[in-house]
Every structure is written in structure tokens, then in C-alpha cells.
């Protein structure tokens, strides 16, 4: 049985109190919301903080609703509540689908949208017990100096595996963060970095408060596709979100595709819009976009499934997404 180490649990009543606690115990503290990812990682001794600060009950991190020309989601809203919310289903269907596809129903009720965005990167050499990692030789991400995926690599390439982030990037979301220095907003595409050890532009002690998504422009269609070993529980081998705006003649005005599971951050697939703009989503255009996506995608051996097969599945997911939006 994997046991948790000893720690002190804090339950603040407000966002300001939570920020103060994170500052007071800086260097030996972590925030916790649903805990569906953090607690297993603590059991594996990947994180051993002496203090945990609970965020799930903070009123400032709750709520889903319209504010002006955007939709605001509190970071502590559960994945299940986001997936089932009628406003999200109507205006942001790809986000609803992404949240509904995460793990299983029990974990979706506990896990939060903010927690999914801040999900730790994953790797077949990292997400193991301490005994396993010690026997193999620790990796670059935790306790070691070597990357077992890229021999001689000096930068961690553990895979980003958060489904909601992929959808939110195609939706043009921005994130509100709060810390000792005050509040700030950052576009989601600027939030992630290529460093698998810590792939988020968050300062120590900062808290993700909310996600703001602009209301989609009329004529925009969305799709979310996910590849995994089983249809529940499993993390994605690859996920792909797409947003396509069509004019009155059903011709493509814009196309954005974002994929994850291949590197340390979700990536926009380049040049797909050039292959589709001005055309209808017929079979030839769909095949051209799928081929372009295949050329742009290069998975690594950071997940325990053959990288060449995963790459071959990229155009399959692209075809499914485009066919769904064309239909």
C-alpha cells in the first residue's frame, strides 16, 4: 500500500487567506482543489509538501455565467459541472465534450477545471513509485540528471495531458491569476512553456482564479477528439480540439487545431488553415488538412504506447473532427 507522508492541511475561508498561507509556507506548500492528480503523485513521493492549502471551497473560485461578451468559469468548478452546464453545452460544446471525456464520473465530480489546466506533465519514467524510479535511475523531472526519453537531453519532455486546456486554446480563453503581487490575466496560449518539469507560467504562490472565454463568433463550429487505450479513466495518448468558422457559403474562413499528449504543452498545428481557407470541407480538403497535420506532429516515447502508431492516429482524429464540423 502506498501511504501519504505527514502534512498540515489548511482550509482558508477566502482567496486572500489562501494567498497568505501559500506565502507564509513558501517552499514547503502546495494548493489542492479536487486532489485527483496531486494525491496519487504524493503517494508516489513525486511531491512531499509539508502543507496543503485547500482551494475547492473558496467562493471567489466558483460560478459559471456570462459577463459582458465572455463566459466566465470559476477555477474550482468541477469538471462534471462544466460538462453538464447548459451554457457551456450550447456555446462551447468542445469544452463540454473535453470535460465529459476526462477520466471517470467519480473523478470528474472531484476534479476541477482549474486543476485540469494545472495538471502536472506525465511520463512513463516519471509517474511511477519511488521504488521503481530508484531502481531504474531517477529522471530529469524528479531527483535525477538524465532524460530517459531523449538520451542526453537537457530539457524535460514529459507530456502535457490536460484535455480542457486543448479545447480552451481553440476558444481563445484567458486565465485570471492571483498572488501576492495582485491579479493578472494571461492568454492561455501564453500560459504554457516547453519545460516538462514546470510547464506553466505561474509564480510561486499564485492561484488560478477563473477562465474567461469570449463568446464564439456566429458560424463557428467546434470538435474535440481523444485517443486513449480505454474509453474511460485513461489519460489521452493524443487529444485534438478544433474550431472552424464558415461563411454563408459553407466555406472556411478560419481553422484552428490544437493537439496535446505529444510534448510538454498543447500545440497549435501549423499550416492547417492554409490548406482549408476559402474551401468547403469536402473529402479532398479534409484529406489535405489531415496530411498537413501528420507532417506537423512528432510524438515522443514519453507515453508507453508506440510513438509511430500515435503519429499515424493524428490524421484519423483530424478527419473525425473535420467531418463532425462539416456535418
Structure description:
This protein is an alpha+beta fold. 31% of the residues lie in helices and 21% in strands. Among the domains are: 59-118 and 159-214, Uridine Diphospho-n-acetylenolpyruvylglucosamine Reductase, domain 3, CATH 3.30.465.10; 220-326, Enolase-like, domain 1. The strands form three sheets. A five-stranded antiparallel beta sheet has the order 4-5-8-6-7, with no helix packed on it. Strands 9-10-11-12 form a four-stranded antiparallel beta sheet, with helices on both faces.
**Distance between termini?**
50 Å
What general form does the structure show? globular
The low-confidence parts are none
Major β-sheet profile: 5 strands, antiparallel
User: Beta-strand percentage?
Assistant: 15-25%
Q: What portion of residues is helical?
A: 25-40%
Radius of gyration: 20 Å
Counting H and I runs of at least 4 residues, what is the number of helices? 12
Give a count of the beta strands, DSSP E runs of length 2 or more: 12
What structural category characterises the helix and strand content?
alpha+beta
Amino acid at each position: 500500500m502506498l501511504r501519504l507522508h505527514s502534512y498540515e492541511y489548511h482550509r482558508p475561508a477566502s482567496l486572500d487567506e489562501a494567498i497568505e498561507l501559500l506565502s507564509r509556507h513558501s517552499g514547503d506548500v502546495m494548493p489542492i482543489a479536487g486532489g485527483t492528480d496531486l494525491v496519487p503523485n504524493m503517494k508516489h513521493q513525486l511531491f512531499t509538501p509539508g502543507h496543503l492549502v485547500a482551494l475547492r471551497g473558496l467562493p471567489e473560485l466558483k460560478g459559471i455565467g456570462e459577463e459582458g461578451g465572455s463566459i466566465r468559469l470559476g477555477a474550482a468548478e468541477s469538471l462534471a459541472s462544466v460538462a453538464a452546464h447548459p451554457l457551456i453545452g450550447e456555446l462551447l460544446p468542445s469544452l463540454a465534450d473535453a470535460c465529459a471525456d476526462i477520466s471517470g464520473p467519480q473523478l470528474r465530480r472531484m476534479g476541477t477545471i482549474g486543476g485540469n489546466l494545472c495538471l502536472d506533465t506525465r511520463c512513463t519514467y516519471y509517474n511511477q513509485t519511488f521504488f521503481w524510479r530508484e531502481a531504474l535511475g531517477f529522471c530529469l523531472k524528479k531527483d535525477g540528471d538524465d532524460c530517459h526519453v531523449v538520451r542526453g537531453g537537457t530539457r524535460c519532455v514529459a507530456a502535457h495531458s490536460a484535455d480542457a486546456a486543448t479545447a480552451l486554446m481553440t476558444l481563445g480563453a484567458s486565465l485570471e491569476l492571483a498572488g501576492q503581487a495582485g491579479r493578472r490575466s494571461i492568454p492561455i496560449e501564453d500560459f504554457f512553456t516547453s519545460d516538462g518539469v514546470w510547464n506553466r507560467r505561474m509564480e510561486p504562490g499564485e492561484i488560478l482564479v477563473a477562465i474567461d472565454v469570449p463568446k464564439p463568433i456566429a458560424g463557428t463550429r467546434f470538435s474535440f477528439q481523444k485517443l486513449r487505450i480505454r474509453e474511460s479513466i485513461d489519460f489521452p495518448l493524443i487529444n485534438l480540439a478544433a474550431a472552424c468558422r464558415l461563411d454563408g457559403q459553407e466555406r472556411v474562413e478560419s481553422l484552428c487545431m490544437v493537439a496535446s499528449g505529444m510534448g510538454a504543452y498543447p500545440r497549435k498545428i501549423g499550416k492547417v488553415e492554409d490548406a482549408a481557407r476559402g474551401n468547403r470541407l469536402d473529402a479532398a480538403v479534409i484529406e489535405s488538412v489531415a496530411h498537413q497535420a501528420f507532417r506537423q506532429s512528432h510524438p515522443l516515447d514519453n507515453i508507453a504506447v508506440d510513438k509511430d502508431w500515435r503519429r499515424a492516429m493524428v490524421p484519423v482524429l483530424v478527419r473525425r473532427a473535420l467531418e463532425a464540423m462539416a456535418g
